[in-house]
Each structure stands twice: as C-alpha cells, then as structure tokens.
Amino acid sequence: MTTKMRSEIAEQPAALRATLDALLPRVDEVKGLAGGARQLVFIARGTSDNAAVYGRYLIEAHAGRLSSLAAPSIATTYKRKLDLGGVLAVALSQSGRTEEIVETLAWAKDCGASTVAITNGGEESPLAQAADLALCTVAGEEKAVPATKTYTTQLAALAVLALGLGADVDADDLQRVPDAVEALIADPGDLDAVVDGLAEVSGVVVSGRGMAFSTALETALKLKEACYLHAMGLSYADLLHGPIAVVDESTPALLIAAGEGPTLQGTVALARRVTGAGASAFGVGGGDELAAASTAALNGPALPEWVAPMGLIIPGQLVTEALARRRGIDPDSPRGLNKVTQTD
Which residues form a coiled coil (predicted)? Predict the structure, then answer.
C-alpha cells in the first residue's frame, strides 16, 4: 500500500511548478515592500523554522542583508516591544493558522516592521490576513502529518523573496528545480542500503553546513517524528566541536551537501573521518566525491548551491518514509503529532 506521505513526496514537482508560476510574477511586489529593508527576521516553528534557516543563509549570502530567527516568546510570553523600524518580518506557517506565529507577526508590525507571510493556507488564512504581503504556496492539501510538499514550496517562496531583495543569483535556476526534484524521486540512489543502515540503530547524526544546514535540520526532524530515531541535526562545524564523539559503530552519520559550493570539501573530509573511525557515513548529494567517501550514497540534485536545498531534502523524505515502514510505523500518522500545532 502506498502511504499518503509517499504520494505527497511524488506530488512535489507539480507543487513546485504551480508555486513558482504563482509567485515569480510577484518579485516586483516584494521589491516594492521590502527593497529598503536593512535586516530580516524570520518567525516560524518546526518544519517552517527549518525552511527559515535556508532563508537566512540565502538572504545573507546572496542578498547581503543581515537575517535572524525570531524568538516568538519575546512577543507572546515576555510581551516586550522592540524597535523593528527598517526590518522585514517574514512569518512562515504551512497552515497559516498557528496562533503564536500570527500573533508574533502582528507584534512585529506593531513594532514597526514591514511584514510578509509565507503559507499554504491561502489568502484568507489568519497569517496571510495579518501580513502586508502574502506569498501563498500552491502545494495543495497535505494529508500526511510529516510535511513534504509544503516544505519544499516554502523554500521556493523564500527563493522568490530573495529575488525581490536583489539576490545575486540567476533566476532561471528556479525553473530547473521541478525537473531536478522529479529526477531524484525517480532515482534517489542507494535508498535500500541507507534504510538497511538505519533500521537497527537508535540514533543518527545528520549534518550539513551553509545552504545545506536547513536540509540537515529538516531531515533530522523527519527521522525523529516519523521513525522515532534520536536524530541530531548539526552544522558540521558544530559537530566537530565535540558532538562527533557520539558517532560510532552504532550511531551513523548522514552527511548532506550540494554538488558545488564552499562547504562541499568540508563535508567530504567529514565523511572520510567518520568512516576512518569505523562508523557508517551515508552521503546525500555532494556528487561523486562525497559518494566515494561514504559507506553508501543518495543522489543530490543537478542544481546550483543556492537552489539545491529544494532537491537535497527529497532523499531524506524518501528514507524517512521507507524507514518508518521498515520499523513498523505508519509515517502518515506518527504518535503524538497533529497537522497543526498550537504553542502556548
């Protein structure tokens, strides 16, 4: 039986095409609202927070604007007012109905920020209504609890946001993303070997750096919520500062990199260090070099680094779905989780 999660993974090329068709014509609207912003702050939780990490790296590396992740409790619990003049506040929520995120975006506007919502909940969602500009993704209804197509379309919306902020990238790269994702779904690489390597372990370290860091965090979250693994998502820079001690014969590493870019060589070196210590290193992306340094490898997208995260997450989603079934878990309905999470 095909799970809802597996079906929704397969729907991502179409969801990305629809989202890009809807949002690319709105680049000038983003520029008009946010072109003069000196700084960005991203407001999100969970999977959306992992998407925001991609937004942060993308905006800082390619649009030259300082970016940070908000602490919503400053608005909702501590109720402190900050000076957010000249700041663009970007709130991400798949449903657009998470009250904490809506409240924090309204707080940011009250503090002087211009506001953008990124949501799959539509123009009538509370989050879209609270924002100066809503970038609504076109992923369609997502029925499985683990987010797949709503996550990748959030990344697409963040890429459009970056274009509106003058990012020094080739906008035509975005048009290549749906086909690259489709190719990965058809041929993810050595999926069975990676699932075999994770089937009997209780923990795994998932690591990437720079643009791939968001993918490491999101992959770790998926393995935690749908496979009940103790999955630790880390930048490889942080991993080398001490937590690498947990990587051993019973705790493998999943190492993620785009096929180009300044973090690739560090990821390859880490794979060699892990396997040299007798542990398993499973590569995701990184081209032939990372694959050669790894115990087993999953394919990455044939995309430039700035858009690669939209493809790099696909192998992690496929591993999560297959591993959950291997461990006797229904990936569509993990225990203790709901599709919309409200936070006090």
Answer: none
Could you tell me if 116 and 67 lie in one domain? yes
Give the structural domain span for 229.
182-326
CA distances from 151 to 142, 226, 267, 308, 316 (A): 11, 15, 24, 14, 13
For tokens 């506040």, name the residue.
89
Q: What is the CATH number of the domain that holds 228?
A: 3.40.50.10490
Number of domains forming the structure of the chain = 2
Query: What is the per-residue pLDDT for 340?
Result: 53
CB atoms within 10 A of CB 288: 9
Whole-Å CA distances, 39 to 64, 67, 74, 278: 9, 6, 18, 44
- In tens, the pLDDT along 163-192 reads 999 999 999 999 999 999 999 999 999 999
Q: Are residues 96 and 74 in the same domain?
A: yes
Q: Give the predicted TM-score (pTM) of the model.
A: 0.95
Residue 80 lies in a domain: yes
Separation of alpha carbons 134 and 22, rounded Å: 12
42, HSE (Cβ side, Cα atoms, 13 Å): 29
